[in-house]
Design goal:
Layout (H helix, E strand, L loop, with lengths): L4 H9 L5 E9 L2 E12 L3 E6 L8 E5 H5 L3 E5 H10 L1
Antiparallel strand pairs: 1-2, 1-5, 2-3, 3-4
Pfam families: VEG
Protein name: Protein veg
Amino acid sequence: MPKTLADIKKSLDCHLGRRLQLKANGGRKKTVERAGILRETYRAVFVVDLDQDENAFERVSYSYTDILTEAVEITFDDDIKELVIAK
């Protein structure tokens, strides 16, 4: 994964509109897993539109710092398919 906030933003800009799986630290040893579409990137945060059948929220936002500190892990669905095909 990129090492600077600017690199993380550039990397996410290339994936706008793509489906993703998101794992976030929920506190007290809890992990929250969500699925959705990367909708927008801003100067300090990015926005994910969540699947409505699985989540009560319409969208969530996280900062690029969350990715840098590994509090949030993102996997794009295309990347998962490529790993399965490679095996």
